[in-house]
Amino acid sequence: MNLRVPGPTPCPPQVLAASARQMINHRGREFARLIGVVVERLKRFYRTENDVLVLTASGTGGLEAAIVNMLSPGDKVLAVVIGEFGQRFAEIAAVYGAQVERLEYEPGLAADPDDVRRALARHPDVRAVLVTHNETSTGVTNPLAEIAQAVREADKLLLVDAVSSLSSIPVETDAWGLDVVVSGSQKGWMVPPGLAFVSVSPRAWEAYREARMPRVYLDLGRHKRYLERGQTPWTPAVSVLYALEVALEMMEQEGMDNIFARHARIGQMTREGVKALGLRLLAADERYASNTVTAVRVPEGVDERALRRLLEDEYGVVLAGGQGALQGKVFRIGHLGWVTEDDIRQTLDALAQALPRVGYEPARA
């Protein structure tokens, strides 16, 4: 099966083998060694000297942790929304009592840093800005470095959803001044679901000390205190940590620059292959097209669900559908983590064969 959804992503055999190891004492020395190694390797990929904390949670759990540890009920936040995951980040803040100002864009567009500047000028009482770096629902990557500069100029806290970017697309946590950055094990890290990673800057720790939103399980201060003695406050997903240690070792062997280059190459290959079939990308400007997931507009008259069922049942290729308002309007091809050109070539070949069977004749060279 060629799993081409943008998460959970395929795992290398050695990663899966590691996850099958016997349990250990999560209050003992062996676990302290394990989480210590994992955190130091994560910091290298985060490009940070900040604290990086490991939570047993999904990526959404990491986003919730970012909100409840940095804000108080009534705080005003600016949510930069270019898709469903930006909406989710904003919704979490609203549920916990934040006043959410949304800067929204049509699906397929990236955020404009100048719009962020203007929004912050209109709302000088904003305490924090929420940004999704790579919007998985639309296949668009925001210009995070430029957005971060605009946020820094206004001296606001910056909370970043990097769930489907970090590990596959460059993220410069310290150089760009990112206060809180969240990622998840099931994306480009080549590991099963179950872990969220959260980096916290010194500025963010200052905000934490003032924040009054309720938190227990997701209390990052508690996670930091326990990490200092090689533990987590709650029972961790030990098997996923075993897998992550092996995956991070593999990633270090490949090299960060090589990983980024591979994703850029495969992202471009995917987009060119899709367009060669006469299909249209959702991304309005390819400068911001994601190198981890490609969203493709469904041709008129084609039943998107029928196409995906056919691809899975008869060609062994699993694609993702659209989310929210894009259901039935796009399908998405994931190309992050453990992925090669052959995986994409098989996907494009399957699409070329399946599309005529659901009423669309692909373009011919």
Explain this structure to me?
Helix 3 crosses helix 4 (84-95) and helix 10 (256-276) runs parallel beside helix 12 (341-354). It contains twelve helices and 13 strands. It is an alpha/beta fold and 365 residues long. It has helices at residues 13-19, 29-46, 59-70, 84-95, 113-122, 144-153, 202-210, 220-227, 238-254, 256-276, 304-315, 341-354; strands spanning 2-4, 51-56, 76-81, 99-104, 126-132, 134-135, 140-141, 157-161, 180-184, 195-200, 293-297, 317-321, 330-334. Helix content is 41%, strand content 17%. It has two domains: 13-252, 3-Layer(aba) Sandwich (Aspartate Aminotransferase, domain 2), CATH 3.40.640.10; 255-358, Aspartate Aminotransferase, domain 1 (Alpha-Beta Complex). A hairpin with an 8-residue loop joins strand 12 (317-321) and strand 13 (330-334).
Write the layout of secondary structure elements.
Layout: E1 2-4, H1 13-19, H2 29-46, E2 51-56, H3 59-70, E3 76-81, H4 84-95, E4 99-104, H5 113-122, E5 126-132, E6 134-135, E7 140-141, H6 144-153, E8 157-161, E9 180-184, E10 195-200, H7 202-210, H8 220-227, H9 238-254, H10 256-276, E11 293-297, H11 304-315, E12 317-321, E13 330-334, H12 341-354
Parallel strand pairs: 1-12, 3-4, 3-5, 5-8, 8-9
Antiparallel strand pairs: 2-10, 6-7, 9-10, 11-13, 12-13
Helix pairs in contact: 1-9, 2-9, 3-4, 5-6, 10-12
Order of helices and strands: EHHEHEHEHEEEHEEEHHHHEHEEH
Radius of gyration from the alpha-carbon trace, in angstroms = 20 Å
Reported for the largest beta sheet, the result is:
7 strands, mixed
- The name of the CATH topology of the largest domain is Aspartate Aminotransferase, domain 2
> Strand portion, in percent?
15-25%
Identify low-pLDDT runs.
none
Q: Can you give the helix content as a percent range?
A: 40-55%
Main-sheet strand order equals: 2-10-9-8-5-3-4
Shape: globular
Mean pLDDT: 98
**Count of separate structural domains:** 2
Q: Output the structural class.
A: alpha/beta
How many H/I helical runs? 12
N- and C-termini, Cα separation: 28 Å
* CATH homologous superfamily assignment of the largest domain: Type I PLP-dependent aspartate aminotransferase-like (Major domain)
CATH architecture term of the largest domain: 3-Layer(aba) Sandwich
Please write the CATH class name of the largest domain: Alpha Beta
According to DSSP, the number of beta strands is 13
